[in-house]
Design a protein that fits this description.
The protein is of the alpha/beta class and 587 residues long. The protein is built from 23 helices and 16 strands. The protein starts with 6 loop residues before the first helix and ends with a helix.
């Protein structure tokens, strides 16, 4: 079955195929089979039939005996796969997509904001998918008895498409007017946002007219449009397209880091997610969501472990203070085909948007990489915002909001069950003054379960190592009043693409996760420490204070070294003998 088909739909298809094969069946027969064999709720049957039609897995035509009813016929699996892969035109692989994006990146490198590539990729995908949806609808409508002309008009209606888009704003129609590309594309984005309010935040900030006021940029836009026009994106799976989107973010991360943009390496996110282990039906929240990497990888974790249907039961939430970054994050969700998400715009520390009545909304898991040492959130500023009681452990100096973020997360995670994974500047673990007082209270409340020191040079915007703090409001009895320290500073490989960076491999991640799961001591790597010892160290959470990597000791081959010494002594004796002979001759 194609990867683009939802797992839940695939199961229903197999139930029907096993019972009916290619024979013609009525909607009542479909309903009985799904209810009796598949244990499906009766109200879900029309939705399943609609989705089967939309995916091209079942054909429908009018019943010759009763024009008010339809007769259905399942398509064989091989035919579905053939259509899905679009064998006539060829299907784009992951490497094909990367190659296209690399060319696009080379076109704009250092001259144009990379976000325009993402906008064009998004628009091309929507346009190609709209065309595909229209063609499928026409075939089905003709089978249902409409004339070709009637089917053509009917298939343009929004009911047959994920996004409403007038035909004049399809990609191929836009690119025909070469001299009006900026105006055409800007208008298309505006119309798309108006007809699809959920896309308003995504598309509002893209202005191709302003972008192309520079003549050089006009030529870049023309070349980008032609580059994306070479291939259809309608049959590219969300997984591949999502990876392509992430590739762009990663590719431009070194440049954007110089401008202050933060990109969290996906390996670091994967590590946190595998430690927290989110489950279907639970909620995941990132108070600094940016491109939504934390939420997407949480979703992928659940999808891989439990299946797509269960992943769609995950409740995802994110808040972002930068409007343009929020738009990119929302687009990233659409590209990955993830819809079970709520995103909000605003300053989380002052005005958190997710509430339940007069209180903060609480979540099962919080995963975040807030800005390190963020300036400007001392007591005088925070008192101007909402939910001041969040900061019950105290306020921080103006120059570092690290532990203010941690307090917001503690207040936003569910009591007795919630877990937090947060990336912090290493300094927040041991700085004195007000921060020490906050750490003391959090430690005494027994909320910290694990502290992980990361290797240096993992992040694009700093060479500093960083640390991961795992907090747990539901510590198992055997972990109470203890904290696991993991020193992973030497646990890395050199980055394969960026010379100055390091990277966490699957092996590195597994080593950390295994030690966390077992909550074990491992010489030179991890140590379980009683809170009393931490108290004796004045609530210092510096990982190197509790566990330090073992230095590799050079293995000495004594026999080999002895033989080499004997050879040197022999050579020395021969040289001395020659010197004596030479001196005698001189005398």
């Amino acid at each position: 079955m194609p990867k683009t088909t939802n797992e839940w739909l695939e199961k229903r298809y197999k139930i029907l195929w096993k019972k009916f094969g290619e024979q013609e069946i009525s909607s009542d027969e479909i309903k009985m089979a799904l209810i009796e064999i598949g244990k499906v709720d009766e109200n879900s049957v029309p939705v399943i039939i609609s989705e089967l039609k939309k995916k091209g897995m079942i054909e429908a035509k009018l019943d010759s005996k009763d024009s008010r009813k339809r007769i259905y016929k399942l398509k064989p699996l091989q035919e579905i796969i053939k259509e899905s892969l679009n064998l006539n035109g060829g299907v784009l692989t992951r490497s094909d997509i990367y190659s296209i994006l690399k060319k696009a990146a080379d076109l704009i490198r250092t001259r144009v904001d990379y976000k325009f590539i993402l906008i064009l990729l998004f628009l091309k995908r929507i346009s190609d998918k709209w065309q595909d949806e229209k063609e499928r609808a026409i075939k089905e409508l003709i089978k249902e008895g409409l004339t070709e002309k009637e089917a053509e008009e009917e298939a343009k209606k929004s009911a047959y498409h994920e996004f409403d888009l007038p035909e004049e704003y399809l990609w191929d129609n836009l690119r025909n007017e070469v001299n009006e590309l900026p105006e055409k594309f800007s208008k298309a984005l505006k119309v798309l946002a108006e007809l699809n309010p959920e896309l308003k935040d995504v598309l509002d900030n893209a202005d191709f007219i302003q972008f192309t006021q520079n003549i050089e940029n006009s030529e870049i836009l023309r070349q980008l449009v032609e580059l994306f026009s070479e291939n259809k994106l309608n049959h590219v799976s969300p997984d591949i397209l999502g990876d392509a989107y992430e590739w762009i973010l990663r590719y431009f991360a070194p440049d954007k880091a110089k401008e202050g943009e933060v990109y969290t390496p996906r390996e670091v996110i994967k590590l946190i997610v595998e430690i927290l282990k989110p489950e279907p039906g639970k909620s995941v929240y990132d108070p600094t969501s940016a491109s939504n990497g934390m939420l997407i990888i949480s979703y992928k974790y659940v999808e891989e472990k439990y299946g797509k249907k269960e992943a769609e039961k995950l409740f995802l939430y994110g808040q972002e203070a930068n409007h343009k970054t929020l738009a990119l994050g929302r687009m990233n969700m659409y590209i990955h085909d993830i819809r079970n998400v709520q995103l909000a715009y605003g300053d989380t520390l002052l005005y958190p948007k997710f509430k339940e009545g007069d209180d903060l909304k609480q979540f099962d898991y919080i995963i975040s990489n807030p800005p390190w040492n963020q300036d400007g959130y001392d007591e005088s500023v925070l008192k101007k915002g909402e939910f001041l009681k969040r900061f019950k452990y105290g306020f921080v100096p103006k120059q570092s909001a690290d532990l203010v973020w941690v307090q917001h997360m503690i207040a936003s995670v569910k009591d007795k069950t919630g877990k937090i994974g947060v990336v912090l500047d290493n300094g927040s673990l041991f700085r004195g003054g007000k921060e020490k007082g906050i750490r003391e209270q959090i430690i005494k409340d027994d909320l910290i379960e694990c502290v992980i020191l990361l290797p240096e040079k993992l992040f694009y915007n700093t060479g500093a190592p960083g640390a991961i703090l795992i907090l747990n409001k539901n510590k198992p009895q055997e972990r109470k009043n203890k904290i696991l320290f993991i020193n992973s500073s030497e646990n890395f490989e050199k980055h394969p693409e960026v010379r100055k960076l390091n990277i966490l491999t699957e092996k590195n991640i597994k080593q950390i996760v295994d030690v966390y799961d077992n909550f074990e001591n491992k010489e030179g790597f991890s140590r379980v420490v009683d809170i009393k010892e931490i108290e004796d160290n004045e609530f210092n959470l510096n990982v190197s204070l509790y566990v330090f990597p073992e230095e590799e000791q050079e293995q000495i081959d004594i026999e080999k070294e002895w033989n080499e010494l004997k050879d040197l002594e022999k050579q020395e004796a021969e040289i001395n003998k020659k010197i004596e002979i030479f001196l005698r001759e001189v005398e």
